[in-house]
Amino acid sequence: MTLAEFFARAPAYLFQEGEPGALERALGPSPSGSVNLAFYPVLVRRNVGKILLEVYPGLRALIEREHDGLWRALVEDFWRERPPRGWDPNLHFAAGFPAFVGRRREHDPRVTELHEELADFHWAEFLVWAAPDELPQGGGVDGVDHRLFVRQYSRRVPELARALVEDPGAPIPAQQPTPTLIYRDPASLRVRVLYPTVTALVVLSGRRKGARAEQLVGAIPGLSVALLEQVERELLEHGVALDGPRLSR
Amino acid sequence: MSSNEPAGVGIGLRRPHYDALLAAVDDDATLGARAPAWLEIIPENFVGRGGRQRAMLERCRERWPIVTHGVSASIGGPDPYDEDFVRDLRALVEQLDAPYFTEHLCYASLGGRTTFDLLPLPRTEEAVRHVAARARELRERVGRPLALENISYYAVMPGSTLREGEFITAVLDEADCGLMLDVNNVYVNAVNHRQDPLAALRALPLARTRQIHLAGHVRQGPRLLDHHGAPAVPEVWSLYREALRQVGPVPTLIEWDTDIPPLETVLDEVSRARAIWDEVFAGGPRPAGVPELSIETSKKSRRVGRRARGRKARRRDGASTEAS
Fold this sequence. Notes:
Chain A has helices spanning 3-14, 22-27, 34-37, 39-55, 57-66, 70-81, 97-105, 113-130, 157-166, 198-209, 213-216, 225-238; strands at residues 148-153, 178-184, 191-194. By secondary structure, chain A is mainly alpha-helical. Chain A is elongated, with a radius of gyration of 24 Å. Chain B is α/β, with parallel strands linked by helices. Helix content of chain B is 42%, strand content 15%. Chain B has 10 helices and 12 strands. Chain B has an 8-stranded parallel β-barrel, surrounded by 4 helices. Chain B has a two-stranded antiparallel ribbon with strand order 5-6. Chain B has a two-stranded antiparallel sheet with strand order 10-11. Residues 304-324 of chain B have low confidence and may be disordered. The chains are: A mainly alpha, B alpha/beta. The interface between A and B is large, with 53 and 44 residues.
């Protein structure tokens, strides 16, 4: 047996894509026996489940309480659809899971909008926590800062995600459209969540476009330059908005 | 010895311990004499990361020597190294001014697909030449000495013609690499494959030992699983004492990666390791519950250990997952 022959047959063995026992039939018996040899495909499959569990703990808890066996099926199908390619378990594997959940929702009525939102939040939380300190060209994911994610969820998803990690039976908050900012606190470097007012969203949007306060006053009723400046100061204090051109300059 | 050289007993830098370790960076008295002497990181957790990960690393480097212990290079695999990862690993090792770096004697990916596991190779002469050449290549590209870990293996691959000790010795000799001696793996492998732990330890190229790992394991079904989620068992401490006698005062690391407990619990393991260190190198008293090993007592303790851990494993069913 050559090493090339072993490597040629190892994927079917490890990823359970061939008949059980095919490796030994082709290359000879394992000195430690077939039962032990069959353990490695089990370990490989467990590893992908463990990665998704660590990145999406709240989602896993909710799905498991709602539908017996669904989480396991999602993990298996995702792994089959997008086998990991690359050394980073998060960026090269877990990253694709929110989009997979979204596609699954289109044809599996057990998968809901809330599941998709929980997956999205967990992944955004990881990206905010792990993103490099240097700003990429163009300013990042949402054009403001690559460590700031702006979302419109159907309810307070971050609170639910964290509650589910502590208690899989945590109640689901009432449905109410909820603007949500997920960002990195520049002082503590921890992930923070803010539920912004409409005025705060106007300020963030204006800063992104390089607008001046006077140009934003008419965006919604009741705005004034003084209010916009006050909200901008609060966003800067929270660390949601970073240094850069102010609305009044 | 330079300030970046690990010495004594250290721990792995893990996220649940960040606050406690930061406090110790700011104030020596926080952990006092129980503080780890050095830290080890999994580079994959830091490469390309910013924020708290990066800041934590920089703060800890102010106080401790830090070395890297990689899990994804797939040194024994068929795929070319990931160019970006090797470049970033080199930069990280240089930033830490680590005197060496460690990886596993295994493969982890093939045909572009990743298993996220540490997989045993067929133990053949051809595999020796293959891994040794790849190890030399990685060492050259990272620019520091490399030590390879003896992995835990749950099956011997078809076509194997060499024993584990013979295979590891041949690879390290041909690559001129160090041994990252994982004592728990020696024990887990010996029990799983019905070998004597002490004989298995002595079969390794101990003269090449650059660093030692200690960890816990769990019984799962018919085998012991190297899960890094429990204290080391007495038999592993006994093997550790024997290893120190053979290799001298080699830096030792406590690994804990699954169900990570409070830092104090990990430091309890550090204290146990230091007590054995003191016994071997400073004539200190023999720590309680760590029997002297011989080939015969090693066999006996293995039988007793199997029964005891079998009971323990049933209580732990479903509570643990494996970590390589």
